[in-house]
């Protein structure tokens, strides 16, 4: 039913997504630990500020963590070892997230291309209006 390439890409995408879900599950324990020790108000404030810093550093590999390193060490009271661990974990997690996005996009493209070819859907050129 599907070309063999699609099956391989889907498998890789699924495995990478599984790694991301495992990382998310592990992070919930970290959130619980921080909420228990520094309080929910500080935890929610940390999330909001990290979101603001993430908007301020788009497209820069590791930019979010580097931009918010002072915030992370200040609120979470991490020392040099904790900051180094945070940078190392982010580097690994970020590469998995990027691989999941790229692989998923490729799998979706293959799926939609196969669907369009099977049903005779042709590519249409759309002209955007000039404002």
Verbal overview:
79% of the residues lie in helices and 0% in strands. The protein has one domain (4-109). The chain is an all-alpha fold. It is elongated and about 60 Å long. It has helices at 4-38, 40-56, 63-67, 69-75, 80-118. The mean pLDDT is 77. The N and C termini lie far apart (45 Å). The protein has five helices and no strands.
Task: Give me the secondary-structure topology.
Layout: H1 4-38, H2 40-56, H3 63-67, H4 69-75, H5 80-118
Helix pairs in contact: 1-2, 1-5
- Unreliable runs, pLDDT <50, ≥5 residues? none
Rg from alpha-carbon coordinates = 20 Å
Order of helices and strands: HHHHH
Quote the distance from N terminus to C terminus.
Answer: 45 Å
Number of domain units: 1
Q: How many helices?
A: 5
Structural class: mainly alpha
Number of E-type strands? 0
Largest sheet: none
Fraction in helix: over 70%
Overall shape: it is elongated
Strand content: under 5%
What's the average pLDDT? 77
Entry summary:
The chain is 79% helix and 0% strand. It is mainly alpha-helical. Helix 1 crosses helix 2 and helix 1 packs antiparallel against helix 5.
Record keyword descriptors for this entry.
single chain; 131 residues; mainly alpha; elongated
């Amino acid at each position: 039913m599907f070309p063999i390439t699609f099956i391989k890409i889907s498998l890789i995408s699924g495995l990478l997504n599984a790694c991301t879900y495992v990382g998310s599950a592990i992070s919930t324990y970290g959130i619980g630990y921080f909420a228990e020790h520094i309080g929910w108000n500080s935890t929610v404030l940390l999330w909001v500020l990290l979101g603001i810093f993430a908007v301020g550093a788009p497209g820069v590999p590791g930019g979010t963590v580097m931009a918010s390193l002072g915030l992370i060490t200040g609120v979470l009271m991490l020392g040099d070892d904790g900051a180094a661990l945070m940078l190392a974990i982010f580097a690994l997690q970020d590469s998995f997230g990027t691989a999941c996005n790229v692989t998923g996009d490729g799998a979706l493209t293959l799926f939609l291309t196969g669907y369009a070819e099977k049903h005779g859907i042709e590519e249409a050129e759309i002209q955007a209006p000039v404002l």
